[in-house]
Amino acid sequence: MAVQPLSQKEIEDRLAELPGWSLDGDKLARSYRLGSHVAAAALVVHIAAVQDELDHHSDLTLGYHTVSLTVHTHSAGGAVTAKDFALARRVEDIAPGHGAH
Q: Is the pTM for the entire model greater than 0.90?
């Protein structure tokens, strides 16, 4: 079964439930600032494990004390889908309390 792109309204409604996440062009995006580079690297490893579990992968960037990710669904023509929001929610669950960069 093909994954269907979400409408702009659906995207806006779901973003309202995920503070810190935004729409960057045709992708969901979020950055986190952590207390150290090691903490940021550890978050990357945790996100990678979640992505493998969900079989849905983002573009993930490790910076100095920061982690940034963008995600969309390639199989839906690069559109934002429910799969992207499922990943975003799981990332929020493992990175609670971290403010946007």
A: yes
